[in-house]
């Protein structure tokens, strides 16, 4: 399934914060966990700001593998400043994988859904919000839908 790249870029433009701090990370991470519970989904969650993990949670039925996927997906966001799902779809349109296209180690970079740039309006990408545990597109949707809910509720 290839999703329109313009739509994914639009998500990144719309889902930006006016500010973000430790309390924001706690509230957003808690909302992600709450939304996963409502969906009867088990996920691991990571929110990183400027290289510092501000929120981390692993729900029942997750494993160390989910944490490893989080590391690899957020490496993509930190390097390319786009969601991991966007980068995966971008490479698909080019007919290449991340190793062929960028000469990076695929064991360290995973361009699969679930990691989204943490962007401050007027600043730039300052971190990532990452989920692992569902099929990759569902990981992406969980982050995007929760970010939309959070920003509408707290970032007016």
From TrEMBL:
Tree of life domain = Bacteria
Q: Which InterPro entries match?
A: PduO/GlcC-like, PduO/GlcC-like_sf, YBR137W-like
Q: Which family does it belong to?
A: Belongs to the UPF0303 family.
Extract the PANTHER family matched here.
PTHR28255, UPF0303 PROTEIN YBR137W
Name of this protein = UPF0303 protein PBPRB1633
Q: Which organism is it from?
A: Photobacterium profundum (strain SS9)
């Amino acid at each position: 399934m290839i999703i329109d790249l313009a739509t994914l870029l639009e998500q990144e433009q719309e889902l930006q914060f006016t500010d973000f701090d430790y309390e924001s990370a706690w509230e957003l991470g808690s909302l992600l966990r709450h939304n996963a519970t409502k969906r009867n989904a088990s996920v691991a969650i990571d929110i990183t700001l400027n290289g510092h993990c501000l929120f981390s949670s692993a729900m029942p039925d997750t494993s160390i593998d989910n944490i490893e996927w989080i590391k690899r997906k957020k490496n993509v966001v930190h390097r390319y400043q786009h969601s991991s799902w966007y980068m995966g779809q971008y490479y698909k349109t080019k007919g290449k994988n991340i190793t062929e296209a960028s000469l990076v180690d695929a064991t360290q970079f995973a361009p699969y859904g679930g990691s989204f740039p943490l962007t401050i309006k007027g600043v730039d990408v300052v971190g990532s919000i990452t989920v692992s545990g569902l099929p990759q597109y569902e990981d992406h949707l969980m982050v995007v839908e929760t970010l939309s809910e959070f920003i509408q509720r707290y970032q007016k």
